[in-house]
Amino acid sequence: MNSTTPGSESREKGIATMEEIIGSAGPATNGTGPGNVIKDISEKDFMAEVIEASMQRPIIVDFWAPWCGPCKQLTPALEKLVTQAGGKVMLAKVNVDENQGIAQQLRVQSIPTVYAFYQGRPLDGFQGALPESQLRQFIQQVLEAAGGGDDENSIEALLEQADELMRQGQPEAAASLYAQVLEQDAENAKALSGVIRAYIGAGEMEAARAVFDELSEALKLQSDIQGALAALELAEQADGAAANLADLQAKIAQDANDHQARFDLAMALNATGQREEAADALLEVIRRQRAWNDEAARKQLVQFFEAWGPTDPVTVQARKKLSSLLFS
């Protein structure tokens, strides 16, 4: 990431700048990432990096070769899942063409072959490429056998803690946890979307926009990022609208069919955290004149749903009301 960062206001609010949050984060590969969770291993360092290292945490050894087709599917999947494990397990990659002695000692007869070591001994293993769901299960079983399956520092646990802090209205604290995730997995879409939402929660719209703008095109298409973008666009649209709540309510009191005023009121209500009232305002516009302004109320309500998330209680209830209006 480049040095485009929010200014001193972000530091005063306690949220790290974009450079601090994601600028230095990178994939943990080849022994250079956080915690060195993925390494290329040779015969000369197998004892130290696998046998001795497994006394501290499980080591998954991936026996592969450049010419092996299934290996090209398995290895990236293993790297992804090991990275997501947040340091609880390490992946050691052994090129059998260059390290035939190790392969012979462990009786590796076909590749890919994977062994899990713990406390200096093989714990489990398999041959052939497995789907990601089975690989995830394999790693979980290894961690449970090693007594580390419930480690609170895992990516999943960190994300859950950060999301809960966001629900409690603590974006600064949540941002620091999302940053910890990004230190382990720099392209974690949930964490990146969390950073964007944390900036929105702190009122730092420019910082949130900067984080989104610097993401790769592939990441921008992820559903979590799209949801954060919808929330950002709503926040940008509603900037300053909350101050007009009284005026908008007065306009509607004078003319109940002032759809623009009711639409603007919905935006202002959402900006002040009154989601249910915001949804009801748009639903009322749809009830009175569905086609108004090229169905602007319906389209805006859908954007609300995207920003709030599909499982948000207000989203669920408003969707039911919308369906009732559209299909009655």
Automatic annotation (TrEMBL):
PANTHER family: GEO12009P1
Residue ranges occupied by any Thioredoxin domain in the UniProt entry: 20-144
GO CC, alphabetical: cytosol
Annotated transmembrane regions: none
Record CDD domains: ybbN
GO molecular function: protein-disulfide reductase activity
InterPro entries: Thioredoxin (IPR005746), Thioredoxin-like_sf (IPR036249), Thioredoxin_CS (IPR017937), Thioredoxin_domain (IPR013766), TPR-like_helical_dom_sf (IPR011990), TPR_rpt (IPR019734)
Family (UniProt): Belongs to the thioredoxin family.
SMART domains with a match to the protein in the record: TPR (SM00028)
Keywords per UniProt: Disulfide bond, Electron transport, Redox-active center, Transport
One BP annotation, GO: cell redox homeostasis
Name of this protein: Thioredoxin
